[in-house]
UniProtKB/TrEMBL annotation:
<feature type="domain" description="START-like">
    <location>
        <begin position="1"/>
        <end position="125"/>
    </location>
</feature>
<protein>
    <recommendedName>
        <fullName>START-like domain-containing protein</fullName>
    </recommendedName>
</protein>
<dbReference type="InterPro" id="IPR045736">
    <property type="entry name" value="START_2"/>
</dbReference>
<dbReference type="Pfam" id="PF19569">
    <property type="entry name" value="START_2"/>
</dbReference>
<dbReference type="InterPro" id="IPR023393">
    <property type="entry name" value="START-like_dom_sf"/>
</dbReference>
């Protein structure tokens, strides 16, 4: 199995951290921009895209700040994390994405996140 590479992306978002947190931490919020539908049972989230289901476990959550998921089938120590970062001075809000992918799929993975975040900005009205 090919070693996955870790990458980070930062997206400025014009939104309050409190509102943003609802969109990254709840099934209803995530289903508005991240997947077609999201269900959760406790710490286990089921993400549905075009009828295909992917299951991830919520392994870390910091209220108002971040969520960290681990895909069920990954079998390694990879994860994806969505973190809200607020600049101390300017109060600008950004989303910091940490994820892993195969090296030859890096550009594609980054583009996917860019599209997802673009959808999020439209939902928030900050596009």
């Amino acid at each position: 199995m090919e070693e996955k590479v870790k990458y980070e992306l930062e997206f400025p978002i014009h939104s309050s951290p409190q509102l943003l947190y609802q969109y990254i931490s709840t099934p209803s919020g995530l289903s508005e921009w991240f997947a077609d539908n999201v269900n959760s049972r406790g710490e286990v989230f089921t993400f549905i895209w075009d009828g295909a289901e992917e299951v991830a476990k919520l392994i870390r959550k910091k209220s108002g700040e971040l969520v960290k998921f681990k895909w069920d089938e990954s079998g390694d120590d990879t994860f994806f994390e969505i973190k809200i970062v607020v600049d101390e001075i300017t109060k600008d809000v950004s989303l910091m994405i940490t994820d892993f992918t195969e090296e030859d799929e890096l550009e594609e993975a980054k583009m996917l996140w860019e599209n997802q975040i673009s959808d999020l900005k439209q939902v928030l009205g900050s596009a």
